[in-house]
Design brief:
about 100 residues; alpha+beta; Arc Repressor Mutant, subunit A; three-stranded antiparallel beta sheet; 4 helices
Length: about 100
């Protein structure tokens, strides 16, 4: 019979560690995720641009990408257009 003295049991749940080659364009994925979080409330193009540190035209591209992915992006008309996503819960269900 083997002795278990000195052996540390492995945890049932642990964080995954990065093992492999870095993926190109992770910055783009990070921006999309930040944009999804930012668009919980109505936000203008200028606010998005400043928050993500990108050009206004890129903000338009990201908004189009979100629509293409199936997010419901609402537009509020006023002095400036404001945008928000209304169906994030459909994509990110919390168990």
């Amino acid at each position: 019979m083997k002795s278990t003295h000195g052996i540390i049991p492995r945890p049932l749940i642990r964080k995954r560690e990065f093992t492999g080659k870095p993926i190109d364009n992770t910055r783009r994925v990070e921006r999309v995720l930040k944009l999804i979080v930012l668009l919980n409330d109505f936000t203008t193009i200028k606010e998005i641009k400043n928050h993500l540190g990108i050009h206004e035209k890129s903000v338009q591209r990201y908004l189009n990408l979100l629509v293409q992915l199936g997010f419901d992006v609402e537009v509020k008309f006023g002095k400036y257009y404001s945008y928000r996503i209304t169906n994030t819960k459909d994509f990110f269900k919390v168990a």
